[in-house]
Amino acid sequence: MDKKVHSIKWLYLTVFLLPVLGMAQEKDKEKETKIDEVVLVGYTKVSKKDVTNSVSSVKAEAIKDMPSTNAAEAIQGRMAGVKVALSEGSPGADVDIVIRGGTSITGSNAPLYIVDGVQMDNALTVLSPKEIESIEVLKDASSTNIYGARGANGVVLITTKSGRKKARTLINYNGFLGVRKIQNTIDVLDPYQYVLYQYELYNKAGIDTDITTFTNRYGTFDQLSKYRDVKKRDWQDEVFGREAFNFTNNLSVTGGSENSSFSLSLNNVEEDGIMIGSGFKRNMANFKYDYDISKKLSLGLNARYSRQTIFGAGTSATGSQSTNRLRNSVRYQPFEGVSTVNVDEFDPLFADQTNLVNPILLANNEIKENGRNDLMLNGTIEYKINKNFTFRSVLGYVQRDEFINQFSGTVTSVARQNNDQPVVVLSKGQTRRITNTNTLNFRKTFGNHKLDLLAGQEIVKTDGETLAMTIKWFPKSITAQEAFANIQAASPPAGLVQDAPRAGRQPDRLASFFGRANYIYKNKYILTASMRADGSSVFAPSNRWGYFPAASVAWKIKEENFLKESQTISELKLRAGYGLSGNNRIGAFLYDTFFTTSSDYGYAFGTNVTPGATTGNIMANKNVKWEAAASKNVGLDFGLFKGKIYGTLDLYKTDTKDLLLLTQIPKDRGYEYQYQNSGSTENKGIEFSIGSAIISNENFSWNIDANISSNRNTIKSLGNNASASANYYYFPSGWQNNLNDFLVQVGKPVGTYWGYVTGGRYEISDFDYNPTTQIYTLKDGIPSSAAAANGAKPVQPGDLKLVDLNGDGIIDNKDMTDLGNAQPKFYGGFNQTFRYKNWDMSLMFNFSVGNKVYNANKIEYSTQYLYRDNNMLAEVADRWRWFNDLGEKVNDPTALAALNANTTGWTPPAGAYFLHSYAIEDGSFLRLNNVTLGYSLGKDFTKQLGLSNFRLYFTMNNVFTITGYSGYDPEANTRRNPLTPGVDYAAYPRSRFILSGVDITF
Question: Pfam families in the record, alphabetically (predicted)?
Answer without folding.
Answer: Plug
